[in-house]
Amino acid sequence: MFAIFLVASIWYCYSLPQQEIGISIPVYKKSSSTDVDNYKNNQYSVEINIGNPPQSFNVLLDTAESWLWVVSDECLNCEPIQRSFVPGKSKTYVSTALSTIIDVLNITASGTIGMDSVFLSEALGVSQFFVLVNENFIDTETLFLADGVLGLGFSQLSGGYANFVQNLKLQGMTNSSMFSLYLSSEGDDDADAIPSNLMLGGCDLETYSYDDKFTYLNVTNSSGYWEVPLAAVHLEAGLAIESKSVIFDIGTSMILASILDHSTIKDAFRFHQGCEEDQNNGYIYCECPYENSTENYPPLSFYLGNGQEFQVSAFHYFHWNATTGLCSLLLGENAGESWVLGDVFLRAYYSVWNMDDGTIGLAQAKSNYVPDKSSSKSGVSLTSIIIIASGAAVLGIIIAALIYKFTRNRLNKKKMQCTIASISSEECHYNDQSSSSLSGSVNEFSSDSILNEPLVEIKPDYIVVPANLSQYAKH
Q1: Which of 330, 364, 398 is the C-terminal boundary of a domain?
Q2: Residue in 249, 261, 357, 448 annotated catalytic
Q3: In this structure, is residue 273 part of a structural domain?
Q4: Most CB atoms within 10 A, among 178, 216, 267, 425?
Q5: Which of the residue ranges 15-24, 32-41, 284-293, 426-435 would you say has the lowest mean pLDDT?
Q6: Of 311, 331, 364, which residue constitutes the final position of a domain?
Q7: What distance in Å separates the CA atoms of residue 272 and residue 263, rounded to the nearest whole number?
Q8: Which GO terms of the molecular function aspect are on file (predicted)?
């Protein structure tokens, strides 16, 4: 009966009318999840499609940028580049004839603003303003394997243009301008690692964290960044820091201390036993004779928001070199007055980013593995542990058999029952109406007026956009 009910339900859902945007897309889809490519723990990217017919691009995720941008086929000084967008090949591309300047990895590039359909998956797409870079672009060696950037920052960073996540809500694809990130620690070469993941419109706490809830921080997003107050930084003891805020940025691979505090944190490690500064490159190196010797070093603690503590273990903030027996500190310097908590921090936490109520939630990630201290410091190998455990198990069986034989004539047989209690993790909860919120979030958001506006077709065979979308573009 269940199978018949399931088949009937699926048939009914697919028989419902659906809104056409190039392909059939379910309206008010709660969430959509996609795997994220991890390139050597240095960059995290996703595949997107732009235009009709679709042109595919691999774009970096960047929470310190709001624009989606790719390279134009007419770009000057852009060689070599793997893939570029050809406007003439898309029958739905609309040019605004407007130009803008963007900062790409501290290098300035100029581009033209256009609009077309953008899909992260076959079932999740919107009409999106984006930048076609056409001059002074950086080469692929700097960008690694990427063709562009998918900005996940607030619209202040793009002159008021809504980013991809915001447009998913504005155009009815999700119930909220929310996304969640899980970053793998080992890279895609480790078959046992949980793949990095981006979920739009929701989160999956049970899959990516052992915690049963998020700890939420209010974002002071007047600048457009995911920025929260910084109360203190500890490395065994409190450090005399001057910075007052941190910025969360998936587009930065390391933790960057502010220009005000960089020397302070470096000195804290230099004076720690075994740590020295390389005078050639300025990096800190510490003695790590074996892989798990990072356990000899204390966690780096950040006290954020109202003083909530978030620890990053040495397992995360060090990179171990088996050849040299040294650990390099994954800490750099930010030219600004804020700390930047990049991938080194974000790999330790499963994060949910809510643009509606201006909060970011953190829960310890399943990838936040810290090796067992007792086995690492004693030098006992895993093989030895297995042999000892196996021997103990055999000995236990023999002893149990002897005890049973000795007492079986004096004991009555009894039936024993065992129950196992299951514990379910808290998940994100949604409101199917015009507003939604995370369970436990601080503030509720108000619905956007654009959701109540009529839809008009720019290209009748493909794109459907809100009639007053232009009011969200700052010309």
Answers
A1: 364
A2: 249
A3: yes
A4: 178
A5: 15-24
A6: 364
A7: 14
A8: aspartic-type endopeptidase activity
Vertex 110, ends 149 and 255: CA angle to 5°?
40
For residue 116, being part of any structural domain is answered with: yes
Nearest residue to 177 via CA among 353, 441, 432, 434? 353
Q: Is 37 a catalytic residue?
A: no
Has residue 4 been placed in a domain?
A: no
Alpha helices in 95-213 (DSSP H): 140-143, 164-170, 205-208
**Residues 44-85: tens digit of each pLDDT:** 999 999 999 999 999 999 999 999 999 888 887 776 667 899
Q: Helix, strand or coil for residue 84?
A: coil
- What are the DSSP E strand ranges found in 355-431? 359-364
Residue 269 sits in the same domain as residue 329? yes
Determine phi and psi for 417, rounding to 5 degrees: -120, 150
Q: Which two tokens stand for residue 236?
A: 């065994």
Residue 227 lies in a domain: yes
Q: Verify that 129 and 235 share a domain, yes or no.
A: no
Q: How far is CA 443 from CA 202, 216, 433, in A?
A: 17, 11, 17
Q: Which residue has the tokens 């770009």?
A: 75
* Structural domain of 467: 15-181+445-472
Does the N-terminal peptide bond of residue 54 adopt cis geometry, omega within 30 degrees of 0? no
H-type helices in 171-280, by residue range?
205-208, 262-270
Give the H or E element holding residue 127: strand 124-135
DSSP-derived secondary structure for 247-263: EE-TT-SSEEEETTTHH
Q: pLDDT tens across 182-230, in order?
A: 998 865 455 667 899 999 999 999 999 999 999 999 999 678 999 999 9
Q: Is residue 58 located within the same domain as residue 159?
A: yes
Which residues 6+ apart lie within 8 Å of 339 measured at CB? Answer: 230, 233, 243, 245, 246, 247, 255, 256, 257, 258, 261, 302
Same domain, 223 and 168: no
Chain length of the chain? 475
Indicate whether 305 and 336 sit together in one domain. yes
Predicted TM-score of the model (pTM):
0.73
pLDDT at 106: 62
Q: Domain check: are 170 and 219 in the same one?
A: no
Write out the two tokens for 453: 């506006």
Residue of 62, 204, 261, 357 marked catalytic: 62
Based on the fold, state whether residues 342 and 222 are members of the same structural domain.
Answer: yes
Query: What is the average pLDDT value for the chain, to the nearest integer?
Result: 75
Examine the residue annotation and report whether 249 is marked as an active-site residue of this protein: yes
